[in-house]
Amino acid sequence: MNPLNPSQPRRVNPLQELQGCGQAPWLDYLKRSFVARGDLAEMVARDGVKGVTSNPSIFEKAIGQSDEYDDAIKEFLRGGDREAGDIYEHLAFADIRAAADVLAPVYSDTGGRDGYVSLECSPHLANDTEATVAEAQRLWKAVDRPNLMVKVPATPAGLPAIRRLIAAGVNVNVTLLFSVDVYEQVARAYIAGLEDLRESGGDVSRVASVASFFVSRIDTAVDKKLDALADKTLAGSLRGNAAIVNARMAYRRFLDIFEGRRWHALARAGAQTQRLLWASTGVKNPDYKDTLYVDALIGPDTVNTMPPATLDAFRDHGEVVCNAIQQEFSGVRRERAVLMELRDRGISLEDITRDLLDDGVKQFVDAFDKLFAALEKQRAAHAG
User: Fold this and answer.
1) How far apart are CA 68 and CA 167, in angstroms?
2) Whose CA is closest to 164, among 123, 208, 133?
3) Range of 284's domain?
């Protein structure tokens, strides 16, 4: 019963309900005080949060735009002058390890299916396969937590890096995925990496990966082009559809890939599917429901990583419909109709997803550079 109104039954936490639908809620946020105060542990217990994702923008806001890390930086520099990169890694590794330790029971209880914390390779390496592989392996060893996932972007250079890292037993979160065709290449790289690992005598059951498929940025880009159309009625009917259609097509591709004979040979050896992780699920258009990209993308064997505001909103008024991802529209025919309407108006989802990948890398590079500039200022101040 609801203690505030005994006549009303207590509402089940929608975030907890997601687990019954086969979806894991993760949190797209990380900050030292958030972990130290016990807020992450509370979300794990109350909401069933099963993972944490970070990126250069998150660290830039946490470290570069607050004074929370000043004492830690000052203490670190007492041992001698350090480069900005050393300071960043000293701070970031500590935060990642602390979050990973909070999530260690989840990792254990789920048999390594959940309980992960993600750390990004330097975005400056996004177009260099060899440098990405070396950086990811270095981060993997330095953090030294089995429930770490190293983030690698789905660039042309990132695809071969994914295969090699999986073959080396490194957990990988493939990020900046926008295109369904590129997603298929990512899934195939994951499977090929597992096959390489098995052939070398490795244990395929001990490596995990997610494919982070970005959502809201698709609608933002498509809606901007729709706003320029002369036919405002048609534009209105198409708004807010492209991102969900794109995600649904990726999910259907996921089901096809992980039902094949090639995959089942790995599954018999204990391999886990590479789940689709819905990223960028915070709604950017105030005209849309603030839980749109959670409500519509509930499906088995998926993850949804939510920024704090979206997670709070879904806890408060999210709508849980198991397998909603297959029910949101009327099926393949409806999806094709949406894509054809967009194409007929000169809006190419292929062009948009390619541009979004390039822009995503640039945004992370900019955030990384901004963070390092802030750390250089602190370094100079403490040295002075």
Assistant:
1) 39
2) 133
3) 14-377
Token duo for residue 116 = 């992960």
Counting every residue, how long is the chain? 384
* Residue 377 a catalytic site member: no
| DSSP states of 98-165 | HHHHHHHHHHHHTTTSS-EEEEEPPGGGTT-HHHHHHHHHHHHHHH--TTEEEEEE-STTHHHHHHHH
Number of domains in the chain: 1
Of the residues 141, 151, 224, 284, only one is catalytic, namely 151
Residue 4 belongs to a domain: no
Between CA 55 and CA 118 the distance in angstroms is 8
pTM score, two decimals?
0.94
3-class SS string, 152-219:
EECCCCHHHHHHHHHHCCCCEEEEEECCHHHHHHHHHHHHHHHHHHHHCCCCHHHCCEEEEEECHHHH
Residue 196 CA, distance from chain mean position: 25
- 5 is a domain residue: no
pLDDT tens for the chain, residues 1 to 384: 344 444 455 578 999 999 999 999 999 999 999 999 999 999 999 999 999 999 999 999 999 888 999 999 999 999 888 999 999 999 999 999 999 999 999 999 999 999 999 999 999 999 999 999 999 999 999 999 999 999 999 999 999 999 999 999 999 999 999 999 999 999 999 999 999 999 999 999 999 999 999 999 999 999 999 888 877 776 777 888 899 999 999 999 999 999 988 999 999 999 999 999 999 999 999 999 999 999 999 999 999 999 999 999 999 999 999 999 987 544 556 677 888 888 888 899 999 999 999 999 999 999 999 999 999 998 988 876
CATH of residue 334's domain is 3.20.20.70
